[in-house]
Each structure stands twice: as structure tokens, then as C-alpha cells.
Design brief:
single chain, alpha+beta, Alpha-Beta Plaits, 4 strands, about 40% helix, globular, Dimeric_a/b-barrel, Stress-response A/B barrel domain-containing protein
């Protein structure tokens, strides 16, 4: 079954405007290097009144649970988690749906 991977991000309040502005392009560039997933999207909410303060969302579709597990462990993904996400994200929600 397909895995739908959703992540929401709240950035650290002390970030400079430049750090905020470069978060999305740096993440998108890093995600493009991840060899797993059949489709993805990342960006700010289009209706932020219900976004609960989350500034960006990520969606990635993976073909099955095995590919999701490989995605989670791959060096390209871990580089994002231990790099820009650790440096700039205050809160993160990660949610997966298998359908």
C-alpha cells in the first residue's frame, strides 16, 4: 500500500528573515537528492487561519512501507534532519497514512 508522508514545520522565532526565506529552497534542493518517493510538494499553507502556527508543510508519496523505511534512513534525508531541520525548526509534526 502507498505511504503518504506529511510533515509540518514551525520555524524558530529567533531566525533572521534571510534564514526564514532560505529554509524552503534549501529543503527543496535537499529533497530533490533523496532517491525515494514518487511525488512530493512543499510550501506554506494556502489557508493559514487553520494552520496552528505551522509555517511549512511537506508531502511525499512513497510506494510502500519498505520504501518509507528506506527513505527515513537514507543519508540524503538524514542530512536534512540533522542539518537545516535541526538548526531552524522549533516544532515538527510527522504523520504517515498507508492507503
Amino acid at each position: 500500500m502507498v505511504v503518504h508522508h506529511i510533515v509540518l514545520f514551525k520555524l524558530k522565532p529567533e531566525l533572521t528573515q534571510e534564514q526564514r526565506d532560505t529554509f524552503l529552497p534549501i529543503c527543496q534542493e535537499g529533497l530533490a537528492k533523496v532517491p525515494y518517493g514518487t511525488s512530493d510538494a512543499m510550501g506554506p499553507p494556502i489557508y493559514d487561519a487553520k494552520a496552528a502556527g505551522y509555517e511549512y508543510g511537506l508531502y511525499r508519496q512513497l510506494k510502500d512501507i519498505e520504501e518509507f523505511q528506506a527513505y527515513r534512513a537514507c543519508p540524503e534525508h538524514m542530512s536534512l534532519i540533522t542539518g537545516i531541520v535541526a538548526e531552524r525548526v522549533a516544532e515538527m509534526v510527522s504523520f504517515q497514512i498507508e492507503a
